[in-house]
Amino acid sequence: MAEVSSGSSFIYMSADNVKGLILALSSSLFIGASFIVKKKGLKRAAATSVRAGLGGYSYLHEPLWWAGMITMIVGEAANFAAYAFAPAILVTPLGALSIIVSAALAHVMLKERLHVLGVLGCVLCVVGSTSIVLHAPAERQIESINDVWTLATEPAFLLYSFSAIAVVLVLIYHFAPSYGSTHVMVYIGICSLMGSLSVMSVKALGIALKVTFQGVNQLIYPQTWFFALVVATCIVTQMNYLNKALDTFNTAIVSPIYYVMFTTLTIVASVIMFKDWDRQNPSQIITELCGFITILSGTFLLHSTKDMGDN
């Protein structure tokens, strides 16, 4: 056993994967806390003006909301760096930790009671994420932004991208005005679909910066700036509709559902674009799927026990 541990810190994990893991864990802590701080800011803003869920933007004048945004930016920066070192199929599932952080803080700070089965749900999220992390594939070797562009313009990923954008437009212009305030899946669907595209672009930018810091400038290529534009567009859209979701629905509902949808769509996008599963054997893939099902079970418990409190 000692021989195995001295040879490698984690089975199936390269040095870059370990760096990505550490960055992703830090990211989840900051992002989980940011949900609660932003929620408190939204509540303060709603007490004196139009709620964000009804189209108000008074939260932009609320310092507490900005504190939450800064916390989220720090977390997203760590997440950005993580994607430069590790595949999305490793980094993204660690968002389960942000669910646990936000659920625990909501229990203490927002008095959104967490039932004992909700605690079990958190444990299942951790177990599932651990299973995925330990069997994640090594990062694909990419030497320039042009390599990423080649992957992004293959027919399969183009089909996914256009389909995601079409669904988002339908949700924004048809379903959100009528059902956004009563069906959480509308706002979360928009955030998750845009999120999956932003992660792929963030990963492309992260790779470009990593290669640039290694001495080969990637900022001279228009593809780099195209990915930057996609990231900016997606993040603005995500933040707008995530604010609406947080202001309209309970945090204990928004966080896990957002995590499940965002993680699922991001893994699908990564498998299509970077062909993560091509570098794995069937046993690893099955283990990852089992881990993801475990995470889904945990989020189901969190969702189904949201109103049970201590009773």
UniProtKB/TrEMBL annotation:
One GO cellular component term noted in the UniProt record for this chain: plasma membrane
Subcellular location: Cell membrane; Early endosome; Membrane
Keyword hit for Transmembrane: yes
Record field: transmembrane: 20-37, 80-108, 114-136, 157-176, 182-207, 219-241, 253-274, 286-305
Keywords of this entry: Cell membrane, Endosome, Ion transport, Magnesium, Membrane, Transmembrane, Transmembrane helix, Transport
SUPFAM superfamilies on file: Multidrug resistance efflux transporter EmrE
Record's bilayer topology term: Multi-pass membrane protein
GO molecular function: magnesium ion transmembrane transporter activity
Organism superkingdom: Eukaryota
Quaternary structure, from the entry: Homodimer.
Role noted for this protein: Acts as a Mg(2+) transporter. Can also transport other divalent cations such as Fe(2+), Sr(2+), Ba(2+), Mn(2+) and Co(2+) but to a much less extent than Mg(2+).
Similarity field: Belongs to the NIPA (TC 2.A.7) family.
Protein name, UniProt field: Probable magnesium transporter
Protein source organism: Adiantum capillus-veneris
